[in-house]
Amino acid sequence: MKAYKKLAAVAMAAAMAASAAALAGCGDVDYIYPDRVSVYETTGTKSGLLSRKSSLSFVDAGEEDYTRQTVNISTDALYQEYVGYGASMTHSSAHLIMEADEATRTAVLEDLFSREGANFSVVRIPVGASDYIPGDTFFTCDDMPDGQTDMSLEHFNLDNDGDIIAVCKLIMQINPEVRFMASPWSAPVWMKENGMLVGGGSLKSDMHEVYADYLVRFIEEYAAEGIDISMLTILNEPGVGALSYPTMDMNASEAAEVTALVGQKLEQKNIACSIVAWDFNYGSSSSGYADTYFEMLFEEYSDTAGSYIDTVGFHCYDGDGYYSSQNLFGLKNGIEKISKDYGKASLITEITESAASNDFASNLTYAAKNVVVNPCAAQTDIDGNVWNGCGGALYWNFVLDSDGQPTAASHGGNECYGVISLDSVTTQSGDTFYKYSKSSAYYAMAQVSRFMYSVDGVPCRALAAYTDYADLCVMAYYRNDGAIIAVVCNTNETNNAPVDIVIGDKKISYEMMPQSIVTFVC
Questions:
Q1: Please, what's the b/e burial string for 170-196 (b: 16 or more CB within 10 A of its CB; e: otherwise)?
Q2: Among residues 60, 30, 54, 36, which one has the least CA distance to residue 507?
Q3: What is the pLDDT of residue 78?
Q4: Class of residue 304 by CB neighbours under 10 A (exposed 0-12, middle 13-18, buried 19+)
Q5: 173 pLDDT more than 80
Q6: Structural contact between residues 189 and 196, judged by C-beta atoms closer than 8 angstroms
Q7: Which of 238-252, 315-329, 410-424 has the highest mean pLDDT?
Q8: What does 34-57 look like in DSSP terms, one character per residue?
Q9: CA distance 402 to 419
Q10: Is residue 7 over pLDDT 50?
């Protein structure tokens, strides 16, 4: 359906310019050096796990010492806002958390969401079933008998979401700043061309509007439970193909139409929820999508359609890294184009640890390089130009058992692991107790997220941080209480890194262990 007026070229240019201005570097920081710098470290050997180290003091920077590895942090401008780190609260994750005894449940959630724990601040919720459910029957929020439809959504329900809702309410008690993102894996069967929940298929041409109603209804029903969803993706992994769990195809032009429909309905209902576009890989899977999507959104629909989305979401299962994926969206310099040309922010919305690697140290540095530190830095190129990075990153399941379960039996071969592994153990006497452990992904994210929070309602903003040393991943953010949060990862497997962190005319110095992440609260 094309129920929207054409957008004039002048209006489109103005909307682009206004959105891009919000992402550009602005202002400078009137930084006051603190008396002491707090230091926290996680090492690949696990000799330190978010451990507090001896405080440091700033000294005059003097001439650069070429025997050391220098990290320069600029206070000349502030860049992208910090959104947060977190993961998905799948039905499997929520089931395991609620199944545990109250003491274990509380401990797990405190470790994930409290200021003394990881302080994670984004929770992704599936709309209907994903591939991670505790039973064997996939579902949506409006399943109907064969041959029947429900155009008015009279049968819409959250009957399968009891555990997720309960966990989300507990999370909000621990971290009131937490944000929720909703992502559907498929529309209900009666809306789809192939009449199947599992096995791909696209929306029927006359179901675009009711699908938009379905997504908005999900947000409304969660709001009625006291859970405000502030971010929504139109579809998880559009075009992923026919797999053994719920999936659906949606090309760029269809996504643009659904985006416009959902955005209009959210606006009409005065619901404060932004749309996150794409929600799929940053590599070849994205080829050719963005130009069609944004051209249609701006040219085919209303003059406000482009404002319904403020973020592009990426998965990390295809491609060679967030900044190095030059063919992102089928565009040369795709990352730069998203922020400068399209005026949109970006967020990593899914990645997981898996059975492909069980090595804590290598997983820790992989996370820093590809998910947590490099992608979320304000990137500086060789000419000194700064690109906006991601506002944060989400891993896949918050909690699974140590075997990566539960997941539907029909979805065989799944090898994903949770940010936390939670297991029930039965003793010889028949008693049951619970134990859990934190993954390298937990520590990689927590090295940043614990220290990143709003002050007086003002979120952290990125500062440009750069280094000439290939073994180092670096990022820096300014917190509104005056602190600079600097994070450095040494990816080298064998060599220490003698690091100087230089801010203005002063520096701090630290000896980093191989495969370690260190956070400096300056």
A1: bbbebbeebbbbbbbbbbbbbbbeeee
A2: 60
A3: 94
A4: middle
A5: yes
A6: yes
A7: 238-252
A8: -S-EEEEEEETTSS-SSEEEEEE-
A9: 10
A10: no
> CB-hemisphere CA count at 13 Å for 69?
21
Tokens 């153990």 -> residue: 425
Q: Burial level of 114, CB count in 10 A (0-12/13-18/19+)?
A: middle
CB count in 10 Å sphere of residue 149: 15
Strand order from edge to edge, sheet including 69-73 = 59-60, 506-512, 497-503, 69-73, 465-467
- Token pair of 484 as six digits: 């600079």
Report DSSP state, residue 460: P
3-state secondary structure string across 368-407: HHHHHCCCCCEEECCCCCEECCCCEEEEEECEECCCCCCC
Q: How far apart are CA 108 and CA 102, in angstroms?
A: 10
Is 240 or 335 the better-scoring residue by pLDDT?
A: 240
Average pLDDT over residues 187-201: 96
pTM of the model: 0.94
Tokens for 192, please give them: 């789809």
**Angle (nearest 5°) at CA 50 between 46 and 52:** 110
Strands 229-233 and 432-438: unpaired
pLDDT at residue 241, rounded to an integer: 82
